[in-house]
């Protein structure tokens, strides 16, 4: 009886090992990227050339998983910002390779910037894009974990609304 149990146990271990190896461990070899989710937290706003306030109290709504809630810029008198930009501060749980922005006010221009902390300085880590209803930015590898969705043009609107921001590693 013991030899039969031993054979069954070894077979079960081999099958379990094969299943585990076929699923992988959720990571990817360095340099190959992955699609692992990165947790983002809307942590404030960045308005260094304005009054310093851009609805920071709403920042967490852009990362709460509910597209019905949102962060928005202040409402400007015209579509012209009259400053280099304004941004949404984001804190990433891990290195992000892609950031996706969802909005109900498409047409604004933005890029992703990164820095070592919420007070900057920040440097550009993605190409500038005109944002549609859902737009994904590719991020330079090895970027810092404090990110800014840096809005450089309001487009034809006087206010930008960011419904949800997500990231993958």
Throw out a few tags for this protein.
single chain, 169 residues, alpha+beta, 6-stranded antiparallel β-sheet, 4-stranded antiparallel β-sheet, 1 helix, 13% helix, 32% strand
What does this protein structure show overall?
By secondary structure, the chain is α+β, with helices and mostly antiparallel strands. 13% of the residues lie in helices and 32% in strands. The chain is built from 1 helix and 12 strands, in the order αββββββββββββ. It has one helix spanning 2-23, and strands at 37-38, 40-46, 71-72, 86-92, 98-102, 109-115, 123-124, 129-130, 134-138, 146-153, 161-162, 164-168. Strands 2, 4, 6, 7, 8 and 10 form a 6-stranded antiparallel β-sheet that branches. Strand 6 and strand 7 (123-124) form a beta hairpin. It is globular. The N and C termini lie far apart (50 Å). The model is unreliable at 6-11 and 15-33 (pLDDT under 50).
Structural class, judged by helices and strands? Answer: alpha+beta
Report the helical percentage. Answer: 10-25%
From the spread of the alpha carbons, the general shape counts as globular
Oligomer: single chain
Number of strands: 12
Point out poorly predicted stretches. Answer: 6-11, 15-33
Described by strand count, sense and barrel closure, the largest sheet is: 6 strands, antiparallel
So how many helices?
Answer: 1
Radius of gyration over C-alpha positions, nearest whole angstrom: 22 Å
Question: H/E element string?
Answer: HEEEEEEEEEEEE
User: First CA to last CA: what distance?
Assistant: 50 Å
Average predicted local confidence, pLDDT: 85
Residue fraction in strands: 25-35%
């Amino acid at each position: 009886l013991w030899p039969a149990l031993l054979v069954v146990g070894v077979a079960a271990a081999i099958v379990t090992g094969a299943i585990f190896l076929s699923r992988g461990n959720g990571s990817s070899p360095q340099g190959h990227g992955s699609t692992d989710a990165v947790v983002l937290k809307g942590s404030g706003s960045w308005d260094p050339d304005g009054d310093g306030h851009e609805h920071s109290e709403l920042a967490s709504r852009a990362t709460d998983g509910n597209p019905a809630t949102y962060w928005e810029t202040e409402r400007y008198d015209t579509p012209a910002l009259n400053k280099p930009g304004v941004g949404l501060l984001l804190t990433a749980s891990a290195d992000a390779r892609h950031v996706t922005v969802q909005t109900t006010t498409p047409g604004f221009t933005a890029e992703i910037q990164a820095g070592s902390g919420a007070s900057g300085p920040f440097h550009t880590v993605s190409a500038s894009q005109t944002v549609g209803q859902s737009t994904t930015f590719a991020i330079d590898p090895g970027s810092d974990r404090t990110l800014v969705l840096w809005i450089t043009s309001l487009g034809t609107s006087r206010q930008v609304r960011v419904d949800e921001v997500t990231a993958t590693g």
